[in-house]
Amino acid sequence: VCLTCCSRDVMVKINQICHKNSVKFFTGDVFGYHGYMFADLGEHEFVEEKTKVAKVSPGVEDGPDTKKTKLDSSETTMVKKRVVFCQLKEALAVDWSGEKAKAALKRTAPDYFLLQ
């Protein structure tokens, strides 16, 4: 389900219905130069391709770069990952007065507060 131009109450209600029924939910809007997007994919599993790292053996190269690792782009492995997304209601209910939230505030885009 994709929503845009909806009130906060409508977005929260539809997200709760989607989350309960394991339906992926996206919402977003734009206000001039600012905008937001929220995604609740429930329990989302995906595969990520990782490049294998080959360590350089000492004595093969000279100089300060001998300790650096090199990426071998010819060999990759597939890593299965799982992410659990939160609901919109939870994302909007963050208590910004705690110490942990103050640290997160520095990493939070100002556009987050447009939705508030």
UniProtKB/TrEMBL annotation:
An annotated Gene Ontology molecular function: ubiquitin-like modifier activating enzyme activity
Top-rank lineage group of the source organism: Eukaryota
InterPro entries to which the protein is assigned, alphabetical: Ubiquitin-activating_enz
Designated name of the protein: SAE1 enzyme
Naturally occurring in which organism (per UniProt): Anhinga rufa
